[in-house]
Design a protein that fits this description.
- Helix 7 crosses helix 13 (300-327) and helix 12 crosses helix 14 (334-382).
- The chain has 391 residues and is mostly helical.
- Helix content is 78%, strand content 0%.
- It has one domain (3-176, 209-388): MFS general substrate transporter like domains (Growth Hormone, Chain: A).
- The two termini are 23 Å apart.
């Protein structure tokens, strides 16, 4: 892989490690500041909503201004936010910091993924996405465990300083990245794609064409089908585990992350050889099956088996979906395409957490997981439709 890829990979690993380190810490910190337990989910979930808003704008800016500035700004926000957590002493202040922190997630990963597509050949794009996504998987496997261990030994302030230090190193690495945006100007009007403004188009319509990629809508829908379940798991799994007495909920994410690590590279290579849909459809089907098993889980073995299945589906589907998105657009529109994809990504997480959370009191956990399974299953069917002609 080219030099920029290796630097970006390590920077991304540290970017996500500093974030994942805080996952088990933030709910405890919120309650320590006086947030009622029923509102902790909102404080945590507002991060995903804040990340969703700048995604399409970031994609457009990555095409117009370059990839590197957005990677630097997003990583800089991730370095500053933990310092803010160490200083904040009120719930409103914490909420504002969560919004600020979330914008960093909306900027850096969007542009970083475009860098990966810039520095790799199309015939190796699935392999590259599989290798690149290992960075976030390693962070997920290590970060929550380390954060859980540190919170029993150190003060909140000390943990926030550690997270800020990790992000500062990520920023230093990102600073060495070259700009990889193709030299051709970004197309602002493409008659053959219906992008030319006309009198009937309002401001929102023009901005929609500028910020969102029509060609990325298909893979974005598939990503949303996958990430609805992830949002539900992030918000509801600890409560489900407590009800079923299945042990440490962190074990689910550890097994999920380790299995995902094991399949990403192979799945990326397979998508290069056989096509994106040949990997995406089975991946969504396996993710759907894992959620069915989760709803039936009454033992730790079955619970961790569901985690392993989910890791296979998630780890195989994610890099192929990223590669499919890049395949469907010319180089000058990769930023918009990735912005569109990541908007659906964040919408799936936040929407899944909210909607599935509303299902639990009325339907119970088993049926809630099966609803998530049905959504992933519909995504598997959609992955076989002609809309994936370029995948």
């Amino acid at each position: 892989m080219p030099g920029p890829f290796a630097v970006l990979w390590l920077s991304t690993l540290l970017f996500y490690l500093g974030f994942q380190l805080l996952l088990p810490v933030m709910p405890l910190y919120a309650t320590a500041l006086g947030v009622p337990e029923a509102q902790v989910g909102f404080i945590i979930g507002v991060f995903a909503l804040a990340a969703m808003v700048p995604r399409p704008i970031a994609g457009d800016l990555a095409d117009r201004l370059g990839r590197r500035p957005l990677v630097l700004v997003g990583t800089g926000i991730f370095a500053l936010a933990p310092l803010g957590y160490a200083l904040v002493a009120s719930v409103p202040g914490l909420l504002l910091l969560r919004l600020f922190h979330g914008t960093g997630m909306g900027l850096a990963p969007t542009a970083a993924t475009v860098v990966v597509t810039d520095v790799t050949a199309p015939e190796r794009r699935g392999t590259a996405m599989g290798a690149y996504s290992l960075a976030s998987s390693v962070a997920l496997a290590l970060g929550p465990y380390l954060g859980g261990a540190l919170v029993r030994r150190l003060s909140f302030t000390a943990i926030f300083l550690i997270a800020a230090g990790i992000e500062a190193v990520a920023l230093l690495l990102a600073w060495t990245l070259p700009e990889t945006r193709p030299g051709a100007p970004h197309p602002t009007a493409r008659v053959d794609r219906g992008d030319r403004p006309h009198s009937r188009a309002g401001l929102l319509g023009r901005l929609g064409r500028r910020w969102f990629s029509r060609e990325a809508v298909y893979p974005a829908g598939l990503v949303m089908a996958l990430y609805v379940s992830y949002g539900g798991l992030s918000a509801l799994l600890p409560l489900f585990v407590a009800q079923r007495q299945l042990g440490n909920p962190g074990l689910f994410f550890t097994v999920f992350a380790v299995v995902s690590l094991g399949v990403r590279s192979a799945a990326g290579r397979l998508s290069d050889a056989l096509g994106r849909r040949a990997v995406i459809a089975p991946a969504l089907a396996v993710a759907s099956a894992s959620l069915v098993v989760l709803g039936l889980s009454e033992s730790r073995a079955m619970f961790l088996g569901a985690a392993a299945l989910y890791g296979v589906g998630f780890g195989a589907g994610q890099p192929a979906l990223l590669a499919m998105t890049a395949d469907r657009v010319p180089p000058g529109e990769r930023g918009r395409a990735m912005g569109t994809l990541y908007t659906a990504w964040e919408f799936g997480i936040s929407g899944g957490a909210i909607v599935l959370g509303l299902c639990v009191p009325r339907l119970g956990y088993a049926v809630t997981w099966w609803i998530a399974a049905a959504i992933a299953g519909l995504g598997a069917v959609a992955a076989l439709l002609p809309g994936g002609r370029r995948g």
